[in-house]
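notes to self, project folder thing:

trying the whole complex as one job this time. last attempt i did each chain seperately and stitching them together was a nightmare. two parts in total, labels are on each line so i dont mix them up again. if this works i'll redo the older ones the same way
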Amino acid sequence: MTTSTTGSVAASGAATRTIVTGSASGIRLRRPGSRNREQLVSWAFLAPFLVAFALFLIWPIVHGIYLSFTDQSLTGAGGGFVGFANYGEALTDPVMWQSMWNTVWFTLLSTVPLVVIALLMAALVDRGLPGQWLWRLSFFMPYLLASTVISQIWVWIFNPQIGAANNILKAFGLEPLAWLQNPDTNMLSIVIATVWWTVGFNFLLYLAAMQNIPSQQYEAASLDGAGPWRQFWSITLPQLGPATVLILILQILASLKLFDQAYQMLGGVASDTTRSIVQYIYEAGFVNYRFGYSAAISYVFFALIVIIGVAQALVSRRRKEL
Amino acid sequence: MTPPLDLSRRQFLTASSLAAGAALLAGCAPGQVSASDTQTLQFWHLLSGGDGVTMSSLLDGVNGAQDAYRIRPTVLAWGTPYYTKLAMAGAGGRAPDVAIMHATRVNGWAPGGLLDDWDLDRLADLGVDKSTFPAPIWEKGFVGDRLFSVALDAHPFVMMFNTDVCDAAGVLDTDGRLRETTSPEEFLDQLRTVGGAASGHALSYGYLGDGAQMWRLFYGLYAQHGLAMELPLGGKAVIDKDAAVESLTFMQTLLDGEIAAAQNDYGSAIAEFATGKSGMLFTGVWELRTMQNAGIPFDAAMFPTLYGTPAVYADSHSFVLPHQTNADETKRELTYQFVADLLKGSIGWAEAGHIPAYLPVTESPEYADLIPQAHYAEAAEHVVYDPTAWFTGSGSSFQEDFGAAVQGVLLSGDDPAAAIDRFEARANTMLAQPNPADPEGTWKP
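result (full assembly):
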């Protein structure tokens, strides 16, 4: 790589930019074939990633589609082509629909507090509280914990006999609950634990967005006589629009992936009211050994995510047009 | 600066990755080959905690007693992860030489060719045959005409009782054993009497979020009606509704908040009994060590027969031969030897609470001296296992499905009949699915 052309490319960053992005005449300066060579080199640098990408992402996706049309079993048996039988079974399987609903229900239950509480915490830290670093640290800290750790913590908090949650209820003269074991409350318990665990991430995004709002706007507003509430509603909230869209998208995708904490907090037990679609995919494949069926459910779930994604894209595009 | 080795960066990277690769490969190599012709046998099991400690010392015993083989155990977390890994090893044809499975899981596995069957003649030559096992335990090892599992033990659901509390309540006989009860009413009366003497509840029974625990009690009671559920593949579940509802209603009565706490999970119930607060505990025998370590005065008994037919829910840890594509004949021979050796030495296994399946052990005077194990040994003659189907058994989704269907009855007073209907519907859904180990249904035992 010591030819004059590449040498000149490397010599000056500014020149490089012109050659690559701008003038066509710059490219003509090179010796014929050097462009191909350059491309080859860049592909070579990309190759390790591309191999991993193809092997662990593209291939499983393609192979999964194939599996979903077979009765392949984890035990090595089966593997014959069964057409759409797995999809037919999935679409008429009440447990599949219940799990799908549980996942959506969890997403609805968790996304709202995860956005609203994060916003409130960020507003408190940004505007009012002294010792900002301490609050930032403590609000964000739980997010750094592994799912196994938070599951253990909350299993003890929700313990029906000696847990902190029931002690609080008793202190207020309320009946103790079997938080995680009662089908009426177990999803709520998982939502509470999840909010505590992950709200810190959204909080940080909101805080960063708030600190990016130019302070002149607040100064101008207060000169015009706007109080703190007015400023919050008319300056802070509108300026947080893009951050909110980002947080919502990330949050919905994260919530749809519900598995770890629900599985761990219930000790791997499948409860009709908390079994998420990811857990059902796992159960079909690794408890009941039906890879084909498991793959089919995955693609039904994939369809749901695509629908949500498209809907989200449409909504945000309409918002831009407005 | 000159590097100590005159290597270019690339040469260095190549060399070091080769070295790392070699180290990895060395890790895959079979255990160290000793100078003598001792064979190493791979043995997978799922026994952890106190059971794991006991198993280790048993293995040390058999390893030390001869030179022909050495057992190399691999312990994996029990439940789904264990069975998934063992199934995959069997599917690949490179499974361990011998493994422990729950007897109730064998039925889902044998049809897929995941297991090799045991040769009855070879076992008999080593002193292991039909006559050396309680009938229901030996028979459970068969799928069709072939023996796929040889039981090490039976671990039934039993009743432990605090002897101080029960003595104070006056429900013990002159030998210090719990007075026998033969009907639900009689048993409830006994429990209420015990409740008067206990500082906590009469009975500790943890079930919340634990389908297996609900199933163990329920299916024992159901079987005491002289019935067994049938789950024919591709057909409909055969469940006697009256018996099922009666059993479930009885469980509901126990959890009235007076006899037993209405909301108790497994761990809390164990803790309640282990701290001497309650008079009785419904539990698997595997908690025996826990109670001995707790130092409370207690004894154990077979679950009382309340509906006419003696029956207790149980499962067995059983030896299986995971399928090997190219089984080494010498190792197979030694595997038979190992299983026979371990069965004959299974008195040590009784210390963990389990009832050894091998009759010469339980009929020995040594075993009769083991208290409280000997007090529930008769349970081995009356064990009932999960109904036979590919999706049932310990650590399967079946028991959890049962729990999901009936927990509302125990926790919040839902209608037992509706719960049994829910459970039946779920069982029928599962029956409509083919055995994944044999999706075409071509396997014949």
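what i see at first glance: Confidence is low (pLDDT under 50) at residues 1-26 of chain A.
need to look closer tmrw
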